[in-house]
Amino acid sequence: MQTLDPDLLRTFLAFAESGSLSQAAATVGRTPSAVTAQMQRLEAVIGEELLAPSGRGRVLTPAGEDVVVQARKILEVHRDAWLSLKGGRTDGRVSLGCTQDFADSTLPALLRQFARAHPRVQLDLRVGRTRELQSQYDQGMIDVLIVMRQGAAADEVAVIEEPMVWLCASPDATSFDDQLPLAVLDPPCGFRSAAIEALDGQGRPYRIAATSPSLSGIRAAIRSGIAVTARTGRFVGDGVVIAPDRLALPALPDAAFSLHLKRSAEKAAITLADLLADGLVRTVAEP
């Protein structure tokens, strides 16, 4: 019986989740030609065509769709086994700081995996805004950090890039006057700056209808229907949807987040950073 190489499955999922060979290559840190070669190797092992031509790109075949389901299961088991072998006898304390974007979406499932495999490790989770978390990290209070990217850094172990989107309440109930009302975090905030720059570039009149020091305040403003905001797709849900095309809102740039690991990090922190780098990059929020 042929065995399925987890590296091949990881690359295949990167393509399935991004829909692009070039994006998959960036996700797994390989060249597009190397990714193509990996896909061909996986097809040879399985004995089925997994990708089919579609215009200038490729799409999944029915067999490819089946492999996506199985690949997720295999990699989940593989990750659990890897964590258990590394963490069963590890103890100590790990401090993780992250923005609320991740705390409310993918992070809980990954932390459950880590905690299950590291029952003797005390996990200290700090959720906040980039500036305050970066300050705590610089003071040595945080071991692993996930914040909006400020630029390349020596301690950066992964970059998570996600489309920025306009969000509002139910599109059927959304109606605004000539000045678009915005809900934004207090400055400094990369999403706030991106939203204002995009509207200025379009020449679109706007007003700040709601401000808040936290995302919970922004969510309340959006759910009430009094404003729109700019975040990633991770913010969708609980009365928040992607703004409809009829609002004719300008295009937004991608949001980039950095995953940092303290130079003097212990074994448990290194393992957690590896887990997050793999898990978060593979679960990029789609618009």
Describe this entry's structure for a reader:
- α1 (6-18) packs across α3 (32-46) and α1 (6-18) packs across α4.
- The two termini are 40 Å apart.
- 32% of the residues are buried.
- The chain has helices at 6-18, 21-28, 32-46, 62-87, 100-103, 107-117, 130-138, 190-202, 215-223, 267-281, and strands at residues 51-54, 57-60, 92-99, 121-128, 144-148, 156-168, 180-185, 206-212, 229-232, 241-242, 254-261.
- The mean pLDDT is 86.
- It has 287 residues and is of the alpha/beta class.
- Strands 3, 4, 5, 6, 9, 10 and 11 form a 7-stranded mixed sheet that branches. A two-stranded antiparallel sheet has the order 1-2. A two-stranded parallel ribbon has the order 7-8.
- It is globular, with a radius of gyration of 21 Å.
- 43% of the residues lie in helices and 24% in strands.
